[in-house]
Structure formats: C-alpha cells, structure tokens
Amino acid sequence: MATTTVQTVERENYLNKHYGVGSWLFTTDHKRIALLYLLSITFFFFIGGFFALLIRLELLTPASDLVQADTYNKLFTQHGQVMVFFFLIPSIPAVLGNFLIPLMVGAKDLAFPKINLLSWYLYVIGGVMMIHCMLTGGVDTGWTFYVPFSTAFSNTKVIEAGLAIFVAGFSSILTGLNFVVTIHRMRAPGLTWSRLPLFVWAHYATSIIQILGTPVIAITLVLVVAERALHLGIFDPKLGGDPLLFQHLFWFYSHPAVYIMILPSMGVVTEIIACFSRKRIFGYSFVALSSIAIAVFGFLVWAHHMFVAGISVYAALVFSLLSYAVAVPSAVKVFNWTATLYKGSIHYDAPMLYAFGFVGLFTMGGLTGLFLAALGVDMHVHDTYFVIAHFHYIMVGGALMGYLGGMHFWWPKISGKLYPEGWARLAALIVFLGFNLTFFPQFILGYLGMPRRYADYSHMPEFQILNVFSTAGATVLAVGYLLPMLYFLWSMRYGKPAPDNPWNAAGLEWMTQSPPTTFNFEQEPVVTWEAYNYDEIDAGQKQEVPVVG
Amino acid sequence: MHDHAKSSPLKTYFTVWAALLVGTYLTYKAAFIDLGVFNPVVALVIATTKALLVALFFMHLRHASERLLKLVVISTIFFLFILMALSMADYATRGRI
Amino acid sequence: MSDSQAAIQPHEGLHNPALLHHFATEEQQRDASNLGMWIFLATEVMFFGGLFCSYLIYRRWYPGDFAAASESITVWLGAINTAVLICSSLTVVLAIWAAQTAQRALLLLMLVLTMLFGLTFLGIKGVEYKQKFDEHHVPGASFSFDHEEIPSHPGQYANPQHAQIFFALYFIMTGLHALHMIVGLGIFSWLFWMAWKGYFTPHYHTPLEIGGLYWHFVDIVWIYLFPLLYLIDRHK
Fold first, then answer.
1. Chain A contact for C157, CB < 8 A?
2. Tens of pLDDT along A23-68?
3. How many domains does chain B have?
4. ipTM over 0.85
5. CB within 8 A of A68, min separation 6: which ones?
C-alpha cells in the first residue's frame, strides 16, 4: 500500500531550511507555528495531567487525606482550566489545522501568517500568566468561575486566572479568523467547496464558533474581574445583581466551546476512516453540513448547564428540547462513518484504531449527553460523576483520541519519519482500555449519587471500590499517553524516512514531499478530482499534482 | 470586481451623512416626547437605521461583490440576537411557572 | 479615474505594498484583508454584545432606577458626541475617496480631521466622566445616589444599588468604547504616516479601507450606546 520512495539524501524542507532559535520564534511558516503549538500544548497537557493524577490519588480513599479540601478545589479547577483552555481548545486546530489547512487547500500559507504567529504568542503569554497564577496561590472556583463565589468570596487568584484565559482566548479567535479567510479566499483553482476535505469543513465550522463565541467569554471575564475588584453589584444578589447572568454569559461561550473541542476531531476521524477503508465518505454533503449544523445549533443550547441553577421551568423546557436537536447532526456523522466502513477494505493501522475508539466512545458520551438533556434525569445526576464521565467520554474518548489518531496519521508528513507501528497499536489499545477503566466506573458512581468536586466522600464509603478502579485506569491511561510521546521523539532521530504518501491517501497534503518545503507547493495546483477518490487511487491512477500551466 | 470608479460617491456620502445627523436629531427630540412603550422602540429603530446606513454606504456593504460579507454581518447579528432572546426566555418567565 | 491597469508602484519605505508571497493575486490579497477585518468586527460585535445583553436584562429589571441614573448624565454632551462621530465617519470615507482619486493633500486633511474628531469625542467623554466623578456616581467605595427621584414616579426614590449597576454598565460600555476609540486613533496615526510617505495610490489603499471599517464600527457602537444610555424616560 505504501509507495516506495527511498531518500538517501535529506531534501530541503521546512524543518531544515533555517536553523536557530530565532528562525523558529520569528517564523511565519504555518508548519513551524504548528510545531510551536505542539510543544506548548503538550507542556500544558502534562500540567493538566499532573493535576488529574493528584485528583485520582486523593480519591483512592474516602477521606480527604492526601490534600485538604481547599487544595483539592484548586486541583480540579486548574485541571479543568488547563485542559480546556490550554490543551483541548487549541489542540487540533492549532497543531493539525495550522499545519494542514494551507496544504489541503493548495495554498502556500494561511491568509495571515503574522497573525498566526501572534496567536501563538498570545497563547504563550496567557499560558505564562496561568502558570504564574497557579504557582502563586492558584484558583479554586471550579473552571466555571461561578459567581458570587469567584467575585466576592474566593481568596484565590481569580483575577489573574481570568485574565490569563482572556489573553488565551484571543489566540483562539485569531486562529479561527485565519482559517475562515484562508478557506474562503485561498483555495486552489478547481477546489470547490464540495471537493474540500471534510477536515477543512470541520475546521471551518469550528472557526465560526471560535469567532462568534469566544468574545462573549472574554467580556464575561472582564465583568468578573471588574466585579471582583470594584464590587459593582453586577453579579452580587445583595446589590441587586443576578448570579445567573454570569452563568448565561459564561455558558453562551462554554457550551459551543465543547464543539470547538470535538468538531476538529470529527474532521480527523473522517479523513482516517476514508483512508483506511479505501472508500469515499458516505454522504459527503451530509457530513459537511452536519459540521455547520453542529456549530449553529451548539449556540442554542447553553442553559442546559443551568437546569438546576434557578432558570425558569419554561426556559429549561426550551433548552432541553434544543439540546435534543443538537444531537441529530452528530448522529448523522456517526451514521455516515459507519456506512463508510461498510464494505470497505479495512486496515487496522494505529490511526484507524484511534478512529474506531473515537466512534464508539464519542457515541457513548453523546448518548449520555441526551440523558442529561432530559430534565427529570438531570435533576438527579447534575453535579455528580455522571456529568464528569459524560464529558470525559467526549473530550478524552472523543477529542483526544481523534487528536492522537491525527498525530499518527499525519506524523510522516509532519516529521518525514515513520513512527513504529507495533508500538503505536499497542499504545492505542492501552489508551482505550485505560480510558474505559477510568471513566466507565464514573458513570456508575454518578448514577449512584457521588457528587463531583468532593475531596472527601467518607460519608459514602461504598464508592471507594469504583474510585479505585478509576484511579487504576488513570494510571494505565497515563502510560498509554506517554508511549506516543516517547516513540514520536524516538522516530525523529531513529525512525525510517517516510515516503511522501505512506498511506496512499487522498488529499493535496499527500502530494507534497514529506516533510513539505517551506512554501508547500512549487506551483499552484489545479484540482480536477473529487475528495476521497480512493477508487481512482486504488485503481492505479497516478497521483500527480496538475499545475497551472 | 472592485469598482473604485463609483459614480458620484460624494453625493451618496454627503446624503448619508446628512441623514445620520437628522436621525440623531430625531432620536434626541423623540426622547422628550411621551410615546409610552414606543419610546425605546423608536430610539432603537432610528439607531438601527443609522447603523445600517453606515454599514451599507460608509462600509461599502451595499456594493460588496459577493454575499459573503453580508452573510458575516447577518450571522453575527443573528447570534447576538440568540444570546439576548434565549436569555430573555429565562428572565421573562421567572416566577411565572 | 482609477488606474487599475497601472503597474504596481513599489515605494520606498519599510514596507513593500506589492503582492505578499503567499497570495496569488493582488485582488486575492485585498479580498482576504477585507474579509479578515469584517470577521474581526464580528468578534467585536459579540464582545460588546455581552454588555448590551447584560444592560438589557438589568434595564428590564430596574426600569425606574435606570431612568433616574440615566437622567443624571448630560444628554446634550452625548448628542454632540454622536454628531462628532458621524462627522468623523464622513471624513473617513472622504479620505478613502481622496486616495482613490490620487488627491494626497485631501487624503492627509481628511485623516487629520478624522483624528481631530476622535480627540474631540474623547475630550467630551473626559468632561462627562469628570462630571460623574464629581457627583460620586463612579461605582465603588465613594458611590452615592441618594434621594434621586424616579422620573416616572415622582416621590419615589431610586435604589442606589440598582443605580450603581447602571453606572457600572455605563462606565464599562463607554470605557470600552473609548478604549477602542484610542486604538482607532493609533491606527489612523499610522495610516497618516503611511499616507504622508506616499504609500497609497488609487491602485492600492487597502490599509485605509480596513482601518476605515474599524472606525465605522466604533461609530456604530456609539450609535447604539447613545439612545440606550442617555435617553431613558427623558420625557418624564
């Protein structure tokens, strides 16, 4: 299946074209910026993972014996903030999106390369602020910053954390802006919307959310900072303010934010499933439009996070109904992936293993979301481990597995090296098993009534056994995550040189060299084929890039 | 596609400018007349008209060659409207059910 | 009038206005810049939008208190400021027209006038803020709003805490707007410098166009702020 091109002399590419720290820190090459992001988000993944480890260690025993409750509050807060804002939201768009979108649309770079670099710097500045905040006292409000605790009662560094996220939010906005303009304005001749890879459609939809949603949390954080500093009364019930106003504004962004986290991953999975089934995607336009639908509908459902917070029953009914509607486009995708697999020629390479894991785990996570959308059920399981299991199934079983699958799939293109396939399949299996061992017990725990954000559950000691399973699973999961980091690093030095198209995959990015040159294409390509033309590829038609002649 | 040679753009610009000033004056004056519940309505209608004039003529949205820019504007307003309307779904019905 | 057929004129100076390497044509570059600025303005609409939403909710909750608070800000200053910004938007489009018709002197004049209008706006805003400061209407420790009658219900007094919410929103909304104004002045200073250097031609003046879009947006925000903040129940 792989083409057999053997490189004996390393060709000039974006990695070896310039050397030196300055050539990286002042680059405007989208591929280098993607790697800068890769380093940064991996760093924050370790930090967020470290907090997760401490949480799981504490929960091994019912008593709050590893850490005090105040510290525990900081652990889960910072785990959430770091993972959401500094890992998951950037992850696929800033690494894979930045790297691949210009390649996939046949462009030399994104529309605004300098703004791309600026977005990385903003991310780093926000990240540094967050680290400083954590080192000088941390924040204990929950990643959700609910008022009036965050504005009037917490004794931790709420303002600094809020400002850190404010800055990082602009990174997200600029990335989305860059992608939308690139996709609209810089597609190669012949690359119509209906020939675009669905990865691009997914990022387009994600960018819509980043552009329209992030500013709202930005202003919300400004209000929180102002309220905390000046006691204005905007959110303080004693002064006539409404704490629920904060929640409305916060969740107006933070619900669509979860779609920022999952849509890119769905795009990755679509690419992988098509390639490793050697088939065109079933229902291309349905998959494309369902991405847009998820982005649009995702803005209509935010108050399902507030069912028990004090909103009116009427509003709860409306949001419950809308939350059922938003599940439909996701289900469309799962159906289309399944239909693509049907009668496909399945290959079980590591990226495909991650894609399989994604489909199953995302479906479970998504279905449990519907449980939560039912008002009667939510009354009982809100603020329990059921919710935690639900969103970890989507964000870890879904988004993170898609990210890992994508990293494996495009690693040969990004690095010019092949990762060790045997280790990769083993790691995928370990991740899958570790994940389920960690989070499935949490569905049960939540259903049985264990509240979230509790360091001490000694009044419910019967929950210990499930917590022990969960912590054991987390350890396995950690091993599963470490393995790819190790063998990716290993492969950069010792891995076999990668052919230009090791998977014989469709897509313009595979028609460049591995790794690509700085300007991607020698000449502007002209696209005359439909997306996912695997039937043509496997029938032996040569993959060549026609150029403007 | 980008027609910089607009016929007498100056006339358009000055007309719009005058309309904006008239609109401001009308808003100001109308605020001092008791129109009951329509006071805020009138104010917002005039404000929206002024905003549209600025967007369509000063920001050249009217002459935008493709519909994309208008789509950007309409989508944004739509989602802002959603934020306000669905929040009001809560605020307007609290204590009633 | 326009010489779109003319060749690109490279200019001395730090920045070559000719085609950036990753774009295929000048038109693509200009369209990308234009779309990029419109999308940025969309983010700004949502940014201010959160404040407008908060304002809407509290005005509905505390109509009398908000009316009393609104009455205490000087409406004619707000009206003049509205007119000032409208004039500044005119000078912006005239500046672009001047660039399109290769009238450098007019272009420079219009840019200067735009900035003068902007400074006037900020000056008047400063006067208003000082008034509020003197009357102890700035939210915080020294805030006081006692014995202010509700316009629609003479004899009833506004709740100072609810009035403080009005003033909090007033200062945050107009303050954020003023901040955008200051950034706008910075942008136009830079545009003036570029125009001075002879950087803009009928063929290329994209920075003027996108700077103009930003300025008009700031104007539009004020067009809404004025009636919402200054004109509540004035007839009562």
1. no
2. 999 999 999 999 999 999 999 999 999 999 999 999 999 999 999 9
3. 2
4. yes
5. A455
CB contact under 8 A, C54 and A249: yes
A contact test, residue of C21, C40, C46 with most A CBs within 10 A: C46
**DSSP code of A417?**
B
d(CA A447, CA B14): 67
> In a mutagenesis test of the B interface, which of C25, C31, C38 is the best target, namely the one with the most B β-carbons within 10 Å?
C38
Residue of B43, A249, A170 whose CA lies nearest to C49: A249
Q: Residues A155-208: pLDDT tens digits?
A: 999 999 999 999 999 999 999 999 999 999 999 999 999 999 999 999 999 999
Q: Is the pLDDT of residue B2 over 60?
A: no
Interface with A, mutate which of C15, C21, C22 (most A CBs under 10 A): C22
Query: Residue B97 — pLDDT band, cuts 50, 70, 90?
Result: low
The residue type at A301: V
Residues B58 and B84 grouped into a single domain: no
> What is the phi/psi pair of residue A281, to 5°?
-65, 130
What confidence score (pLDDT) does residue A5 get?
53
Continuous segment of H or E residues that includes residue A146: none
Does position A546 have pLDDT exceeding 90, yes or no?
no
Q: Quick check: A186 and C28 CB within 8 A?
A: yes
State the pLDDT at residue A545: 59
Subunits next to B (3 or more Cβ pairs <8 Å) are A, C
Residue C58: closest C-alpha in chain A = A241
Residue C95: both structure tokens together: 């500046």
- Based on the fold, state whether residues B71 and B48 are members of the same structural domain: no
Chain A positions in Cβ-Cβ contact with residue C61 (cut-off 8 Å): 240, 242
Query: Min CA distance, A103 vs chain B (Å)?
Result: 23
Are B47 and B76 found together in one domain? no
Cα–Cα distance, A335 to A369 (Å, whole number)? 18
C154 φ, ψ (degrees, to nearest 5): -60, 140
Give me the residues of B, 20-59, that contact A with CB < 8 A: none
Instruction: Tell me whether residue A260 is in a domain.
Output: yes
pLDDT band at residue C21, thresholds of 50, 70 and 90?
A: confident
Residues of C in contact with A112 (CB under 8 A): 32, 36
8 Å CB contact of B84 and C53: yes
Neighbouring-strand partners of residue C150? C153
What range defines the domain where residue A81 resides?
A: 26-533
- B30 & B77 share domain: no
Q: Do C53 and B34 touch (CB under 8 A)?
A: no
Supply the DSSP symbol for A455: S
Alpha helices in A395-463 (DSSP H): 401-415, 421-448
| Interface touch C47/A218, C-beta < 8 Å | yes
CATH, domain C26-230, list 1.20.1540.10, 1.20.120.80, 1.10.443.10, 1.10.20.10: 1.20.120.80
Strand, coil or helix: what is B36? Answer: coil
Tell which residue, C67, C78, C51, has the closest CA to residue C162. C67
Q: Which domain holds residue B95?
A: 65-97
Extract the tokens encoding A206: 């994600």
Rounded to a whole number of angstroms, the distance from the CA of B59 to the nearest CA of chain C is: 6
Residue C77's pLDDT is what? 95
Instruction: Specify the 3-state DSSP secondary structure of A384.
Output: strand
- Is residue A4 included in any domain, yes or no? no
Domain limits, chain C: 26-230
Domains in chain A, number: 1
pTM of the model: 0.94
Size of interface A-B (CB pairs under 8 A): 41
Inter-chain Cβ pairs, chain B and chain C, closer than 8 A: 121
Check CB contact under 8 Å for C233 and B39: yes
Residue B2 within any structural domain of the chain = no
> Between A184, A252, A318, which is nearest B89 by CB?
A318
Tell me the CATH number at A307.
Answer: 1.20.210.10
CB contact under 8 A, B84 and C52: yes
Q: Are residues B56 and B84 in the same domain?
A: no
